[in-house]
Design brief:
It is built from ten helices and twelve strands. It is an alpha/beta fold. The protein binds magnesium ion. Magnesium ion binds near residues 10, 12, 13, 204 and 205.
């Protein structure tokens, strides 16, 4: 029995139905009702920056969160009414990984990788260096070389590889090593004093894998690509965390398992008592 729950969820293609698969017409309404339960604190964990988070909330009638971990984990905000406040302690904590080097210095150091195209200015920040990389390129090899170059500079980085399915383009984020979605969630969990059973995460793609494979109770929505399902299961096995990974199924729930319906399915699995409340809604 849990009395409170920190519900951390990715946005695009996890609760935003902007993938190829269909969304159940009632899924988001039920998700909004779930998020209205007093025991839920809602955290969006996204590659988006804050303005794009707000835009998605408006465009898709998503519930307003209590916190937002944005820019793939490099920024954390707290929301009160319409006001967002950045939690600066977080950026202070991750700053050390880049050993005093700035975004521009790292960009310069990686300029010899001609396959990498810098993403738009709005997708960069002090601790997020983001590139596009063609799906035709040998991304494993390029990532290895980028990693080597950064190691030689003494920089501790996380390289996060994701695919933007609708746009059919690869995304590479160079982040401080401790600034992934996983570290952001762990920081917020400690910051707010939530226990291990009181945190849950839902995601669908590459930059969600560190969380999906961790000991944090996680949900992989049914619309995730088969390759991600395989990778998440492998990672959870390697880390001894198969108990804390739930794969939502499209065929065993009244609403299916795509997008927010998958999140609801996972919550009912981990927390049957909340599941019962959901059926009453
Ligand atoms: Mg996603």
């Amino acid at each position: 029995m849990t009395h409170r729950l920190l519900l951390c969820t990715d946005m695009d293609r996890t609760i935003i139905p902007n993938g190829r698969q269909p969304e159940h017409p009632q899924a988001r309404e039920h998700f909004r009702q779930l998020c209205g339960l007093p025991l839920i604190k809602l955290v969006y964990v996204s590659g988006r920056h804050l303005l794009l988070v707000e835009q998605a909330i408006a465009d898709y009638q998503l519930p307003k969160p209590d916190y937002a971990i944005t820019d793939v984990g490099t920024k954390i905000y707290c929301r009160a009414e319409a006001e967002w406040t950045e939690i600066h302690a977080w950026q202070k904590q991750i700053a050390g990984d880049w050993k005093g080097r700035s975004h521009d210095q790292l960009q310069h150091a990686l300029s010899r990788f001609t396959e990498l195209t810098l993403q738009e200015q709005s997708k960069q920040n002090n601790f997020k260096l983001s590139y596009y990389l063609s799906l035709a390129a040998d991304h494993d090899k390029i990532l290895q070389q980028v990693d080597l170059q950064l190691t030689q500079l003494g920089v501790a980085a996380s390289l996060i590889w994701s695919i933007d399915e609708p746009q059919q383009i690869g995304l590479l984020d160079v982040l401080p090593r401790n600034a992934t979605k996983l570290h952001g969630i762990e920081f917020l969990q400690r910051h707010l004093g939530y226990g291990p059973q009181e945190v849950i995460f839902a995601g669908d793609s590459g930059n969600d894998l560190p969380v999906l494979g961790s000991s944090i109770r996680s949900i992989l929505v049914a619309n995730a690509e088969p390759q991600i399902k395989q990778q998440a299961q492998q990672l959870a096995e390697q880390n001894g965390n198969t108990e804390s990974l739930f794969l939502a199924q499209q065929d065993n729930f009244p609403l299916g398992g795509n997008y927010s319906a998958g999140v609801l399915q996972g919550i009912a699995y981990y927390y049957p008592e909340i599941g019962e409340k959901l059926t009453e809604l």
